[in-house]
């Protein structure tokens, strides 16, 4: 039996052709797509261009013995689309730059590309080009994503004011619980299998809140936004800092993911801590003026009814706090539960 193909035996030209075939024909606004020296595309009329980049590095951001390459490719795109969503931008072109060892299996290459294309298609983004190079060590997947947004509908971290309400989409802590489970290399008890699958799934394949960011941005229901890549505490701090305010988060309002709560119990972890300090949920945090609350909630509904929870406020008083009962403590990435 012949040895399976590796990317070294296939060579660069064949790999680019493989990507091009899997990607299919580009939309009209792409004048020159995959395979030339550079991509050429027409910007959306009357829109600003938004651009962001983020990479996944093997053994830093993922482990190939935990996660299938299809999911790794999916996540590499999803984390970039999450940043576009936080700006209120509509995704457009993606560039994919891969550094891969020569022994990387052709089947894994195809799976990685399929994951990239799957995440792109879900958010109506188009792979328009990229780069392939050889890595002497880890796999590095670098994605650049462009989007467009109407000039008056850009969401930034800096638009908040004291008195704004803080809202978070979805539920938090699942990705961190999933990662904890993978790290322990333990198989969960039978009654926890569903929770485990959900949490590991959230860690490996986060859903970018593309439609939500776009529709909330267009509604001008929110004054500021940030995506929760590094956890709620980090997100609140970044938004408050950029807005020149403080913030208070009410511990009892933080939406802890139900599966994460179950799993945390079994792992001896604090679920609220995972929800606040654990990262990679890729939910969105919005600051909303009280008088724009109805417009914001209506936009959330139009965006597909993703749950949204009011968790606190921006304050004139500096500092970022977690309040519970009559007690409060600094809301930090090194968050400790109330004694
Ligand atoms: Mg971000």
The total strand number stands at 13
Shape: globular
Largest sheet, strands/sense/barrel: 7 strands, mixed
Please give the alpha-carbon distance between the first and last residues.
62 Å
Could you characterize the architecture of this molecule?
- Helices cover 36% and strands 24% of the residues.
- With 339 residues, the chain is of the alpha+beta class.
- Strands 8-10-7-11-9-12-13 form a 7-stranded mixed β-sheet, with helices on both faces.
- Strand 4 (90-100), helix 4 (106-122) and strand 5 (126-134) form a beta-alpha-beta unit.
- Helix 6 (193-204) crosses helix 9 (258-267).
- The radius of gyration is 21 Å and the shape is globular.
- The protein starts with 6 loop residues before the first helix and ends in a 9-residue tail after the last strand.
- The mean pLDDT is 95.
- The chain binds magnesium ion (MG).
Concise description?
By secondary structure, the chain is an alpha+beta fold.
Strand and helix map with partners:
Layout: H1 7-10, H2 12-23, E1 30-32, E2 40-41, E3 48-57, H3 69-86, E4 90-100, H4 106-122, E5 126-134, E6 140-149, E7 165-169, H5 174-184, H6 193-204, H7 210-219, E8 224-227, H8 232-243, E9 246-250, H9 258-267, H10 271-277, E10 284-288, H11 293-302, E11 308-315, E12 320-324, E13 327-330
Parallel strand pairs: 4-5, 9-12
Antiparallel strand pairs: 1-2, 3-6, 4-6, 7-10, 7-11, 8-10, 9-11, 12-13
Helix pairs in contact: 2-4, 3-4, 3-7, 5-6, 5-9, 6-9, 7-11, 9-10
The structure holds magnesium ion.
């Amino acid at each position: 039996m012949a040895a399976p193909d590796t990317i070294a035996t296939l060579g660069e030209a064949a790999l680019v052709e493989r990507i091009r075939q899997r990607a299919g024909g580009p939309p009209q606004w792409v004048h020159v797509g995959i395979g030339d020296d550079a991509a050429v595309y027409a910007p959306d009329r009357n829109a600003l261009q938004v651009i962001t980049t983020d990479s996944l590095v093997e053994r830093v951001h993922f482990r190939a013995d935990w996660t299938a390459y299809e999911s790794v490719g999916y996540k590499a795109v999803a984390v970039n689309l999450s940043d576009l969503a936080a700006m209120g931008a509509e995704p457009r072109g993606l560039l994919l730059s891969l550094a891969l060892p020569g022994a990387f299996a052709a089947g894994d290459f195809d799976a990685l590309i399929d994951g990239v294309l799957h995440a792109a298609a879900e958010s109506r983004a188009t792979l328009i080009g990229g780069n392939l190079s050889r890595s002497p060590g880890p796999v590095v997947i670098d994605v650049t994503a462009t989007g467009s947004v109407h000039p008056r509908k850009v969401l930034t971290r800096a638009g908040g004011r004291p008195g704004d309400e803080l809202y978070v989409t979805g539920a938090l802590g699942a990705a961190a619980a999933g990662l904890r489970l993978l790290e322990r290399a333990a198989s969960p008890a039978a009654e926890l299998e569903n929770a485990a699958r959900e949490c590991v799934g959230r860690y490996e394949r986060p859903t970018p809140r593309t439609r939500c960011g776009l529709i909330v941005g267009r509604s001008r229901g929110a004054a500021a936004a940030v995506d929760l890549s590094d956890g709620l505490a980090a997100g609140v701090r970044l938004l408050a800092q950029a807005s020149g305010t403080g913030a208070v988060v009410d511990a009892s309002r933080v939406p802890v993911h139900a599966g994460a709560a179950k799993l945390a119990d079994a792992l001896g972890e604090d679920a609220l801590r995972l929800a606040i300090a654990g990262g990679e949920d890729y939910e969105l945090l919005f600051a909303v003026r009280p008088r724009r609350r109805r417009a914001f909630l209506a936009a959330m509904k139009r965006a597909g009814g993703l749950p949204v929870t009011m968790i606190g406020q921006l304050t004139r008083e500096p500092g970022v706090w977690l309040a519970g009962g009559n007690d409060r403590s600094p809301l930090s990435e090194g968050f400790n539960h109330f004694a």
